[in-house]
Amino acid sequence: MQHYEVAVDAPMAQTLTYGHPRDQQDPVPVGSCVVVPLGRRRVTGYVLGTSPLTDPATDTFVVKPINRVFAPAPLFPEWLIPLYRWLAAYYHHPLGQVIKTALPVAPTARSGLRASLTAMGIAQLAETRPEELSPGRHPWLESLRNDRQLTAAKVAQLWRDPSEKRKLQQLAEQGWLELVPELVTSQLKEKKETAYTLAAAFDSLHELEPAEIPQELSPADGGGEGVRLKPSEQKTLLYFLELCRQGPKAPVARRSLLEVYRNCGKALVALCEQGVLVKERLRIYRDPFGGREIAAEPPLQLTPEQQEVLSAVIPAIDQGSFSPFLLHGVTGCGKTEVYLRAVAAALEQGKSALVLVPEIALAAQLEAQFYARFGEQLAIFHSGLSQGERFDQWLKVWNRRSRVVLGARSAVFAPLDDLGVIIVDEEHEPAYKQEEGARYHGRDVAVMRAKMASCPVVLGSATPAVTSFNNACQGKYRLLTMARRVENQPLPEVQVVDLAREKRSRPDLFFSDQLISAIHQTLDNNQQVLLYVNRRGFSSAMLCRDCGHVLQCSHCQVSLTHHRSSDKLLCHYCGFTLHTNIVCPGCNSTKVSGIGLGTEKIEEEARQLFASARVARLDSDTAVKRKNYLATLQAVRNRQVDILVGTQMIAKGLHFPAITLVGVVSADAGLAIPDYKAAERTFSLLSQVTGRAGRGEYSGKVIVQTYQPQHYAIRFARDHDYQALYDQEITTRSLLGFPPFSRLVNLRFSGVEEKKVELAAQKIARLIRDEHGQTGIELLGPAPAPLSRIKDRFRWQLLMKSTNGRQLHDICGRLAAGQRQLRLGAVRLGIDVDPENMM
């Protein structure tokens, strides 16, 4: 009997061996989704290949067979399995759950066998008296008779009871019901539509002009009777042939015919009955571009710097060799055109291309440019798509209909074969790091995938991560530089306003006099303004004016944010809400009001100060629906918006030539975060948002409001001096031993009882110190996390730091494999390798 290696969707570090399913003759393909027994339950598994265990006579244990194979074809390609294995090993996450994370159509636990009554079963149960159904022993029989089926979840429940299982099998043997495999993938289904083609006997109609359609039709082969058309049928056929001009025998969708001839329904039925047309159901793909008409654009004239970069990247694509490049290009230097040319070069070689962006905002900005250049060859992957759209895009790539993928971090798992190039735009962004489940970093996985696929990978950024730039300095990456903007446009002038010293004529507002004056001047010049705010909502906290109590979420240790648009207080971590009409829980005072700022408040103040200006806001509240987000971007592009207020989703990647002024309302929030990367991230964000100004024919200006004007991150951002920032960070980190001079692993503990979480963290810390205290492992903590309670779970963390990465991985491997032996009880232990977020 053949045996298979299966990765199960369960918290297990190792794969398991299962035998061939009893009810199947053909071998189970690699990449198949299966259901397998695991203890007393059944779980989803993924077939990774055959197992070397092939001689049952020499086995010392019983190999259980696969229960069922749930898809006629594999769900993932064999060539991605080494990447899955590497990710599971490096990030210490169960392999089966890694594969589930990678698959947008991963089966859910509801997959199983659905029981459906046959015609015989319906008749027999209809004639059976209620008392004969044994409702006491088999109460589900009544539901089966009424609903004519049992869900896969219900069958799985019954299957665990031997007597119920026997009854189901007995009914199946009698022919009363069928046990049908059901693969549940979040209720996603292929989308189909009705279409029509000409029957072979009337294929010659394609050669006729619409005016030549006769009232009587004769089959081309001379056999059968002729067809006499009614006027409505003749008219329907006329429109049909007009739509067919795209190509002979191309199916014409019913919806297309209805758009041009609303009353063609009955005529279509008649034409099919008469054998003139053939009706069929065609697989169609949901349109992720929202029906927008995107015109093809000719490639731009390359600058000397763009040509120099491509002269290094394209030969690596042609040679099919692993070559990591770090493209350090200032904002507005034309990195996107470099990406487009590199992708085109890969396609010319018959290869595919993968382009990653850190978040939906950049994907929406780039997708129009990539679609205009590559059309139907493009597939997009990001959270802004509906489930159906994501499903269809994945299928297009799987079926090789799309050879270019553009998407956020999960797109790194797209089933592209024969990769020619991988591009990671804004490679410094922390959004590439997955913070739940398999805590992988999309950029690092992309580099590993490029290495496995033997193709170049281009990491692009105006502000590269310090670790990436250090890799380039050490020769691990090849550094490519673009120091000039397209058409030699100057970088914007940056003015820093010291809020602690500057007197304001409107101290009740968050606008300095310099910013107010600059906005007035920009609007008078018929140009646009961008205002960046680091938080959404109206007020970042609610404060009691009598006792000073700050209202916090009852489930998380964070302040509630006031959202005036919905008139609610909202927790941004768990979604907990309160009405604004409340009393202070500390002193019962009614004097509770908002403090701090958010995008809603700045939007309101902008409307007060600039009454005639058209103001729009873009944050995660207004961009819940992707079409609203795209509509706002289009309005800015069409000059229908004068002032755009937003969070970091508007701070990078967007190209609006008419924006000449950028205002950073408060630059200090990021510097207060307890994270060794706080200065680097503040510099990157200021540099990125600064780069939105002056990208057209007029020069740009940026005003940064801050209480810390002398902080080096703000000074270097003002001067557009990345090298100085890098030198400062490298000096500081070398003294403190932070990356790139060490490797970090953050052990996260969480549970509903704070004392148990604390004891578990201390227990693991003692264990590591006892075993590795003299081997160069430095422990920071354990200590409560900066956000010590989220969603009613208390959180502690223990940071491990070492120059020996292998030793850290050995510790993590033992912790991941032996969590039961650690006896942490209800406390969860999460392992975060190369953490990005210390909160």
CATH class category label of the largest domain? Alpha Beta
The helix/strand class is alpha/beta
Number of domains: 7
| Fraction of residues in H or I helices | 25-40%
What would you report as the Rg, rounded to the nearest angstrom?
31 Å
User: So, CATH architecture of the largest domain?
Assistant: 3-Layer(aba) Sandwich
Relevant CATH superfamily of the largest domain: P-loop containing nucleotide triphosphate hydrolases
What is the number of E strands? 35
Side-by-side strand order of the widest sheet: 16-17-15-18-19-14-20
- Shape annotation: globular
* Arithmetic mean pLDDT: 84
Unreliable segments of 5+ consecutive residues:
291-296
Q: Please give the alpha-carbon distance between the first and last residues.
A: 51 Å
| CATH topology description of the largest domain | Rossmann fold
Quick recap of the structure?
The protein is an alpha/beta fold and about 850 residues long. Helix content is about 30%, strand content about 20%. α1 (about 80-90) packs across α2 (about 95-100), α10 runs parallel beside α11 and α19 (about 680-690) runs parallel beside α20 (about 710-720).
Give a structural overview.
The structure is a single chain. By secondary structure, this protein is of the alpha/beta class. It has seven domains: 3-102, PriA, 3(prime) DNA-binding domain (GIY-YIG endonuclease, 3-Layer(aba) Sandwich); 112-182, no CATH class; 191-284, Arc Repressor Mutant, subunit A (Orthogonal Bundle), CATH 1.10.10; 304-488, Rossmann fold (3-Layer(aba) Sandwich), CATH 3.40.50; 493-536 and 599-731, Rossmann fold (3-Layer(aba) Sandwich), CATH 3.40.50; 541-595, no CATH class; 743-833, Alpha-Beta Plaits. Helix content is 32%, strand content 22%. The strands form nine sheets. The chain has a seven-stranded parallel sheet with strand order 16-17-15-18-19-14-20, with helices on both faces. The protein has a six-stranded parallel sheet with strand order 21-31-30-22-29-28, sandwiched between helices. It has a five-stranded antiparallel sheet with strand order 2-1-4-3-5. The chain is globular and about 95 Å long. It starts with a strand and ends in a 6-residue tail after the last strand.
